[in-house]
Design a protein that fits this description.
The complex is a heterodimer of chains A (396) and B (280). Chain A contains 18 helices and nine strands. Chain A is α/β, with parallel strands linked by helices and 396 residues long. Chain A has a five-stranded parallel sheet, covered by helices on one side. By secondary structure, chain B is α/β, with parallel strands linked by helices. Chain B contains 13 helices and nine strands. Chain B has a five-stranded parallel sheet, with helices on both faces. A two-stranded antiparallel sheet of chain B has the order 3-4. In chain B, strands 6-7 form a two-stranded antiparallel ribbon. In chain B, strand 6 and strand 7 form a beta hairpin. In chain B, helix 8 packs across helix 9. The termini of chain B are far apart. The chains are: A alpha/beta (396), B alpha/beta (280). The interface between A and B is large, with 42 and 40 residues.
Chain lengths: 396, 280
């Protein structure tokens, strides 16, 4: 019973264990599940073990019991392209209409949301007929509104007695804000800080604490009880390099900077520096990137145990990465392609990660992301990604 | 079995009532997560009250060892007894000096009780895993006497966590889970009414509106929770100027009750138009 529900949950990425599925069946057999509302609550309570997956659960539930479409990667993809199309349209209506082969006046009459829906439908048709990349999809790609999922209801939680059906409740997607994916924002800051708290190294428990040993031994009535403490270990040194050039990074720069400066106390040293798109031979200690340069030759002198955290969307023209003197700034002429610089940095610091605010499923579409990913382990700039990055950085 | 349907001081939503009843029927611990002030601890009190069970609270501390929660072998008393010899206890019997910890008490209680394990996330993960073993088996060994303590009745187990640390997978596997979201304004009104049955309507409405506005300020480290709101309303009611609630439109007193960190206090005390500039 409900096997497909179980597998759909797993497919969607909710970690549901077979044991808990059996437990859920026990609940069903005990007669605890009388209605679909009971089912919704019972299955969630037993199967889903973290509020991070509540939103996903809602969506799968809605998909199975109300036939709502499960927005997978493909859909978000469509939304992304539809938005870029919309951008193109806003910039140059005549050309876009011509490219689409429709009457411009017809599009003019539409409201924004209708337009978006129209583009999305067109794109769907297009892919099914042309098997992917058709020529007018290819360009664009600059939409700042790429992320889809406009959710009209917003977050609705808590609530008193609900007269709505479970399907409606699930449809509200009340737990969207708790999802682990989605970029880091200032509202998830405190949760993110907790993830960073794992960046404190712990020594082995091998230092004899004589005072405590005596105390415990006395408390034990003379029976010797030995107490060990953790060995003191130096806190970490961290270099945080942020890409603060260009508007695509704009919303993330402040969040990351504030996040790490809050966590400042737990590091021995935190150095924040800036770059644009990729690193050539200079990093800058001032956000405007003109006053205080930090030459890569000097970075070599830094303790190799320092954790290097690079934050950037890694999206740029390939030549910026590959060509010697590829920098978009004329005064930065180094003679080495940036990719070599990055490789050098990766070799220099054993613990280095790249945090990317671009959602993971879109990484495959940008050439430079793939190239940089081959050099630095790349993680999403989300709660989930941050957690993974921290555990990578803490590896011995 | 009696089903749980809320109590006089605790406002319960139906979803949560269902969750509690399912966990009780499955005899599985219920793990509650959520922001401070969402009533996680209060829930256990409410269950105990409404079902007429005894509530046993284990407040977890970071340095706690599992044994302390199970039983304690009071060696010091035994040593004293053996030295002075004026006690009624039999010094040669270790059993006389074994005292049950909170989990132990819940096990040996003759009637089914509610065991609240509060703030489990404070302890390290070994503690958590070992404890779940005990709760799974419903028994533990007393090493000193080599006895096994078997639970007479399975207590209703409520575990709360403030999510400072993620709990381990085996732990989560053995619990049912629920996340209590922060109450909506409507719910909050009912909570206030439960605490202050005679509250002036204007005061309740205005105080709640201010409260949610304060909660939406960006960059506040510790957002005010239900507890702060209730204290704040208590303070407002004590002040004759504000007890009717009308003045709240113009002036907001006693911010210190809501914001306990000085940086938060400063943020909240700023004029509102400045704040809203950067709000999303």
């Amino acid at each position: 019973m409900f096997i497909s529900f179980f597998y759909k949950l797993r497919e969607a990425g909710v970690p549901v264990s077979p044991t808990s599925f059996l437990t859920f069946h026990r609940a069903v057999h005990k007669g605890l599940v009388q209605s679909i509302d009971d089912f919704y609550v019972a299955a969630r309570t037993v199967l889903v073990k973290s509020e991070r997956y509540f939103d996903l659960y809602d969506r799968v539930f809605n998909h199975i019991f109300a036939g709502a479409s499960l927005p997978g990667e493909a859909d978000e993809e469509f939304d992304f392209w539809a938005h870029s199309l919309l951008d193109e349209w806003l910039k140059n209506p005549g050309q876009t209409a011509a490219a689409l082969g429709v009457d411009r006046d017809r599009l003019d009459d539409m409201r924004l949301d209708e337009l978006l829906a129209y583009f999305r439908d067109r794109l769907r048709e297009q892919t099914s007929r042309h098997d992917g990349g058709s020529k007018w999809i290819g360009t664009g790609g600059t939409s700042p509104v790429g992320h889809a999922g406009i959710h009209p209801g917003g977050l609705r939680i808590g609530g008193i007695s609900r007269n709505k059906s479970a399907v409606q409740v699930a449809g509200e997607r009340r737990y969207r804000d708790y999802s682990a994916d989605g970029p880091l924002t200032s509202s998830s800051m405190s949760e993110a800080l907790k993830k960073l708290r794992n960046m404190i190294p712990q020594g082995a428990r091998d230092q004899l604490n004589i005072d405590a040993t005596i105390y415990q031994t006395m408390k034990n009535g003379g029976e010797i009880e030995i107490v060990y403490d953790r060995r003191a270990v130096d806190r970490l040194k961290v270099i945080l390099a942020i890409d603060n050039g260009g508007w695509s990074m704009e919303p993330h720069v402040e969040v990351v900077r504030v996040l790490f400066s809050y966590a400042h106390a737990q590091f021995r040293e935190l150095k924040t520096c800036y770059f644009h798109n990729t690193i050539y031979d200079l990093l800058w200690e001032d956000p405007s990137r003109c006053k205080k340069p930090w030459h890569l030759n000097e970075i070599v002198k830094v303790d190799p145990d320092t954790r290097l955290i690079i934050v950037g969307d890694a999206s740029m023209a390939p030549y910026e990465l590959m060509v010697p003197d590829g920098s978009i700034y004329a005064y930065q002429r180094s003679g080495l392609p940036s990719i070599e610089r990055l490789k050098h940095l990766a070799k220099l610091f054993r613990h280095g990660v790249w945090l990317n605010p671009v959602p993971r499923y879109r990484w495959g579409h940008t050439r430079t992301i793939q190239m940089i990913r081959a050099i630095f382990p790349m993680f999403e700039l989300s709660l989930q990604g941050l957690e993974e990055a921290v555990s990578y950085l803490m590896k011995k | 079995m009696a089903a749980f349907a809320g109590s006089t001081r605790y406002i319960l939503d139906q979803e949560l009532a269902k969750i509690v009843n399912i966990s009780m029927a499955l005899e599985m611990p219920l793990l509650l997560k959520g922001e401070p002030g969402t009533g996680k601890t209060m829930l256990a009190h409410a269950i105990a009250e409404s079902l007429g069970m005894k509530l046993i609270v284990l407040n977890v501390k970071s340095s706690m060892k599992l044994v302390e929660a199970l039983y304690q072998y009071d060696t010091l008393t035994r040593l004293n007894d053996s030295r002075f010899g004026d006690s009624v206890r039999d010094v040669s019997s270790i059993r006389e000096y074994i005292r049950m910890g909170k989990i132990g008490q819940a096990f040996v209680a003759e009637k089914r009780s509610v065991l609240l394990i509060d703030e489990i996330d404070k302890a390290d993960s070994e503690f958590q895993d070992d404890m779940l073993d005990v709760l799974d088996q419903m028994q533990f060994d007393i090493m000193e006497t080599d006895e096994i303590v078997q639970a007479v009745t399975r207590p209703v187990i409520i575990i709360t966590s403030n999510a400072k640390k993620d709990l381990s997978d085996p732990f989560l596997g053995r619990c049912n889970f629920h996340h209590i979201a922060f109450p909506e304004p409507d719910m909050m009104r009912r909570i206030l009414a439960a605490h202050f049955p005679d509250i002036a309507q204007t005061l309740a409405v205005n105080a709640i509106r201010c409260f949610y506005e304060f909660r939406s300020i960006e960059g506040v480290e510790k957002k005010p929770a239900t507890r702060e709101l209730i204290n704040w309303v208590r303070a407002l009611r004590a002040d004759p100027d504000f007890s009717s609630g009308e003045l709240l439109e113009r002036e907001i007193p006693y911010l210190g009750v809501l914001f306990k960190k000085s940086s938060d206090y400063r943020l909240a005390a700023q004029p509102p138009q400045k704040r809203s500039l950067f709000r999303n």
